[in-house]
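Follow-up to my post from last week.
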Amino acid sequence: MNTDKRLIRKDSLENLFDILRKKNKIIYAPVSKNSKIIFNKVESFQEIATGYVQTVQSPKEVYFPRFETVLEYTMSKDNISVESVNPDDIPEVILWGVRPCDAMGIGILSAIFNQDFDDEIYNKHLSHLTVLGFSCNKADEYCFCTSVGGNPGNTEGSDILFTQLGENGDYLAEIITEKGWSVVSLAEGLFETAGEINKNQFLADLPSMFEIDEIRKNLENIYSSELWTEQSLKCIGCGACAYVCPTCACFDLQDEAHGKLGRRLRCWDSCGFSLFTLHASGHNPRQLQSQRWRQRIMHKFSYIPEKLSVFGCTGCGRCSRACPADMNILEYLISLQEATI
Amino acid sequence: MNDNPYMPYLMRIEKITYEAPGVKTLMLKFVKEEDEKKFDFEAGQFGMYSVYGVGESAFCIASSPTRKGYIECTFRRAGRVTNALSNCEEGNLIGFRGPYGRSFPVNEWKWKNLLFIAGGIALPPMRCVIWNILDLRDNFKDVTIIYGARSVSDLVYKRELQDWGSREDVRLITTVDPGGETPDWKGETGFVPAIVEKAAPSPDNTIAIVCGPPVMIKYTFPILSKRGFADENIFTTLENRMKCGFGKCGRCNIGKMYVCKDGPVFTLAQLKELPDEY
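User reply:
Got it. Predicted complex:
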């Protein structure tokens, strides 16, 4: 389907929101909470934050929840009855205000979850998800989407991408998918015909900072470099980078039982934790933080690209913003390009 | 939903065998007949065993695929799940999902000599292959098993060791670490690598299958290489912490390879291509 370009007036965005809410759509959007911008369920347009560069958390938890039941069970004296989770119970959700880097992350998670076989639970989330992307008209010093194949006006992963045409301007709406069209069909009158519009002039100016293919190539040579230790000396292994990341998919499976009732949960995990790989014997194949840091970088920039032909990073910069030890992935990636053993 | 990959088979513990201090073997049967019918596996594959309310653990299927209708697992009590499994009684119900991973290429080993070298609790992942081979004994040439443990009481499958030792068509060498012998111990005394060196196995038309604690493996590989075994003819099976079993949860990888789906069976040639992170 060809992308169709329409124009929506600045003041009509609220109308669009109200129409979607009246149709009982569940809408998640960035809101300001305790001076942090996060994705939350919203009831009114006024709740939606504006002027932010990036939310603290990626919207990942809407379609890959922090913990999610994969099966439930009831234990009795002589029997255990185990019920699989029913993916049809996953609600339909609209994600409003997704940055292009996060929208690109959805496809990367899809590639991971659907390698070898289809992950029905994840796929059901996606089929029930409509992504309303909003282009970036500003970036900060942590952003680097243009270095990993994205850009501030990238349509990839969005069903509709809105680009504000200048400060206080109206919005260009690029309708990209069938789901995008079904949103338009609910509010046909709001989407006007657009003339020739070059959105690029309204996007954040973000030059590419490194050659991603060079880094990928160089990673093959520097597995035993001292650099992993140097870079990770500050790392406290808190795992915040993985939790804010739109593409980190590694998970744990945990049982939670109360009396006779229990459930098995798929929960977020992080390769930054020492427990992640710890054997019951006490042996740990990645016992040093430097090994865990290397795993994080290798996984995203070498292993995932090799197996899935995508990079495990969208350049959102969240890991750098969230790091309590002020580790900056952008700086590290730049130095990895030139690193030797 | 039909294809929830996390959904285990429901298994009944048919029989519990005490093997060694902290080590037990569970014989598991499928509760549902249709599960048993569709289940099949190959020697060297593993599964996720679960105690409901506690969690899941990965270990090999220790029984041979030639023995139908049940599977066995042998484990040492070490963590939360193995403790819970250890407390189970005959008749209890547990979960099992699998089989996962790549098996030993037993079919490619026809008419070859087979040399099994195992240490401690690493005999179970080899036992499935040993019985697989012995159940099809005519297809293979000489079978040698070298097995060592810290002490006599730590040797697992004691009855089967007796059985293998008394067979004409198996050469069994058992050993215990110095200080681990009892007054009536009739086997060797010494560490596994030294016993392998002493046994002087010939590499001609021979496949070596080595499994044991990292230190045993580390010192056994060079002895085999020195004797002329090609890296492609030396096999091992690895373990790493796992949660999913099918390459998604992200923790069992060694470099770009996942132990759960690219392994757990690897040749020494494959291992040499991987970083030393296992």
